[in-house]
Amino acid sequence: MKHVLAALLIALPLAAPAQDRAGMIRGIVDEEIVGGFAELEQAAARMVEAAGQDCTHPGLHDSYAAAFLAWARVSHLRFGPSEEENRAFALAYWPDPRGRTASAIRKMLADGNEDLLAPETYADMSIAVRGFYALDYLLHEEDLTEIGTPEYRCALVRTIVADIHGTTGELAEAWEGFAPMLTEPGADSPYRTEDEVLQVLYKSASTGLEFASDMRLGRPLGTFERPRPNWAEAYRSGLSLQLLQAAVRGAGGLAVRLAAVDATLQARLKAELEDFHDSADALGDPVFASVAEPTGRFRVESLQTDLQEVREVVQGELGPALGVSAGFNSMDGD
Amino acid sequence: MPTRRGFLAGLMATGLAPCASWADAGSPAFLAAAKVPSGAFALIGLSATGERLFEIPLPGRGHAAAAHPSRPLAVAFARRPGQFALVIDCASGETVRRLDAPEGFHFYGHGAFSADGAVLFTTENDYETGRGMIGIWDAAGGFARLGAVPSGGVGPHELRLMPDGEALVVANGGIETHPDAGRQKLNIPTMRPNLSYLAFDGTLLDQAEPPASWHKNSMRHITVRGDGLVAIACQWQGAMTEVPPLLATHRMGGPLAFHGFGPGAEYDLQGYLGSVAFSGSGEEIAVTGPRGGMAVVADAEGRVTRRLDQRDICGAAPGVDGFVFTTGEGRMLADNGVTRDLAGHDCAWDNHLVPIG
């Protein structure tokens, strides 16, 4: 009897009824997307407030870290309002293999041009001097104190913080306005069907996990012969591991919600994510500095393996369960 | 005693074996990279009717190949950012040369021979400066590196020899990458693609850019007709809510003309074209959209004449009559207004179908 039931369960279509899919999409849009960007805006507002009191690293650190992590949590959502007007880039210009942020910030400090600090001017500046990674460099790179005046440095911190807040405000508002496009697909939306909405959400989750593995973890890992601890994201502020975990909570959390179409799959995905976070919590190396020595490297590599396992479930099972095409050329073109 | 193959390979390497021709490799009409059932990758020679003539293992996933105009030589490129390309003798199946990108450069995945086959041109990235380059290799002299000239932009992808045999046309996709950041696109907000015509000495003969509001329309794949008309297939890097036309045509010295496919079509294509080809007669242009699962055929003025719905379609080349297409599901189709299956193969055809001769 058990076997018959099992066979029946397997034979049943995996996709949940249409009504459930609509409910699932609504939940994702309200809580993960609109809610996530609203939290980001609030965290950025607190950072503006804190920067008004203290524009240096110790004073600003907590609110800065909270806003940066709130960004990592929604950084996988790179379509619609995040893509429009390059808003995601304005918050996050990373990776930066040519070190553009460093040289542009250093130049600004050396020049000390006050005119550039007006909000409307700054919003038109190169993305290399905008956003969280520019702020991370400015707050934490040690030898910057020798360039320019402390007053200008402080003014620049406040300008970047205000600019970040401006962008997050635009994002929160634009996503709220965009939400019906996702919850009510059809003729008035760029997404004509629920399937198309699921596809863009799935792609966000999948790309976010890929970025977490290949960039957030892969860059510091480098190669065995040439590990690159200084390529870790935001290593100066010590936030690398926390940002990785926040990013995986965001993209992985979205994948878990999408996996509501198949309870078994959802349970497996949750378990894989839990394994990952357990390993991350136990790593004891907030900036992946240990990638250069064998034991530490082994642990960071196995964290990447845990993340690969999450990705395998997402790609190998969640994609097919949602009916998202994964062709040889369509998913991996050039 | 040296084997005949080894002997020929040796001669080939010194550039002294002018007698071998594509007939020695079974006279293939097309080359394509593919993933074979074992999970390995191969370069495959195909006849005009879709028969598999040879299959040569590749060390990793390929992108495109450049076919020598007369000798049975193919240069197989890895996917970007590739550090090397392989010169393969398709008659013997052996790799006769490995082309290493010079220090600080990587390949972008496309190349083209000069009309006499003496010189190979490759699209490359001088990645510390982010400048697009065209590498020049002495195909007649054992593929020694002769030098490199700027491609006229950032991120050159496909390049073609102009019909007069004296210039190149290059699609500078505009997207900056760096091998230290994998395939991450580093400059989407500021990217500026262009189509550049270059003399072999690097002189910029002409250049065309999309209008500023379409600066995220990456010009990546191109083909050129005997009279110099260039067809360009783009990949939109902006928001899917505002996809512009993806097909453009251009003639050196003239304006760039974009051709829309009709309401919603570019969105259906998900802003992404994979390959572009003129038909055998040159009267039509086909573009493939693997993400949208369709090919679109237009006349030479860019007016859509038909649409083929086909999952994961990507490779496109001129056929004897019309076009030949390949798909990631192993299908090979001929189309001249009527679509028919040429062959089904047990492999996943990669992005491009390269015509020989």
Overview of this structure, please?
The complex is a heterodimer of chains A (334) and B (357). Chain A is an all-alpha fold. Chain A folds into two domains: 18-190, M75 peptidase, HXXE motif (A middle domain of Talin 1); 193-323, Up-down Bundle (Four Helix Bundle (Hemerythrin (Met), subunit A)), CATH 1.20.120. Helix content of chain A is 68%, strand content 0%. Chain A is globular, with a radius of gyration of 21 Å. Chain A starts with a helix and ends in a 12-residue tail after the last helix. The model of chain A is unreliable at 4-15 (pLDDT under 50). Chain B contains two helices and 28 strands. In chain B, strands 3-2-1-28 form a four-stranded antiparallel sheet, with no helix packed on it. In chain B, strands 4-5-6-7 form a four-stranded antiparallel sheet. Chain B has helices at 4-14, 265-268; strands at 30-35, 41-46, 52-58, 62-67, 73-78, 84-89, 94-100, 105-113, 119-126, 131-138, 144-150, 156-161, 167-172, 194-199, 204-208, 217-224, 230-236, 247-250, 257-259, 275-278, 284-289, 294-299, 304-309, 313-318, 323-327, 331-335, 339-344, 348-355. In chain B, strand 25 and strand 26 (331-335) form a beta hairpin. Chain B is globular. Chain B has 357 residues and is mainly beta. The A-B interface holds A 79-80, 83-84, 86, 89-90, 95-98, 126-127, 190, 200, 214-215, 218-219, 231, 325, 327-330, 333-334 and B 35, 63, 79-80, 109, 128, 130, 157, 178, 180-182, 184, 186, 188-190, 220, 235, 238-241, 267, 272, 274, 290-291, 293, 311-314, 327-329, 348-351.
